[in-house]
Design brief:
This protein is α+β, with helices and mostly antiparallel strands. It is built from three helices and eleven strands, in the order H-H-H-E-E-E-E-E-E-E-E-E-E-E. The strands form two sheets. The protein has a six-stranded antiparallel beta sheet, with no helix packed on it. A five-stranded antiparallel beta sheet has the order 6-5-4-3-11. The radius of gyration is 26 Å and the shape is globular.
């Protein structure tokens, strides 16, 4: 009887089935160890973006001006998200809520700013930047014209009836976040 069990364990079909079961168990174990909310995984929406996501793409942040609206419509659309590093070195995220076309393309946004340790300095602060005004993101708000040198992080710059430029200021850098 002992010899029969030993022989069945040496059966090549037994070894193959055993290896398949072992491999499936390993795959299931590896999949269960992956955290969906791992802070380094890609965020799926604005609420999931944290400082680690922004730091991971820091090299793509730019201080170059870009066209936000033109004769064809919105290039920077409602619900688009910009991530940034402010003129004071804080990381953050800003979601475009919408535009008031009747009022010189006033831009409504909400912004969250992070401290260096990843804690939140300001969370989902909503404010409006009027056409051809400035935005300050270290303390999220519309900035005054005299704050352009030193404090403002961007200029919402209306060029004409259709074109608006988003211009980073004072060393602040931005990138559009893609989900």
């Amino acid at each position: 009887m002992f010899a029969n069990k030993l022989t069945s364990m040496r059966n090549p079909n037994f070894n193959f089935v055993g290896m398949v079961i072992f491999t499936l168990c390993l795959c299931l174990a590896a999949a269960s160890c992956t955290k969906e909310d791992d802070e380094n995984s890609k965020a799926k929406d604005y609420s999931q973006i944290n400082i680690a996501h922004i730091q991971d793409i820091d090299t793509t942040l730019s201080n170059k001006e870009f066209l936000a609206t033109n004769a064809s419509g919105f290039i920077l659309k409602p619900n688009d998200v910009l991530v940034f590093k402010t003129s004071e070195g804080r990381y953050g995220k800003m979601q475009i809520i919408g535009y008031n076309l009747a009022s010189n393309y006033d831009m409504s946004v909400k912004a969250t700013i992070f401290n260096a340790d990843g804690t939140t300095k300001a969370s989902d602060v909503s404010f409006v930047v009027r056409g051809t005004w400035l935005g300050e993101l270290d303390v999220p708000r519309e900035a005054l014209r005299e704050e352009f040198t030193g404090k403002a992080d961007f200029h919402w710059n209306r060029q004409n009836d259709t074109d608006t430029n988003f211009t980073p200021a004072n060393g602040a850098k931005f990138a559009k976040y893609t989900f």
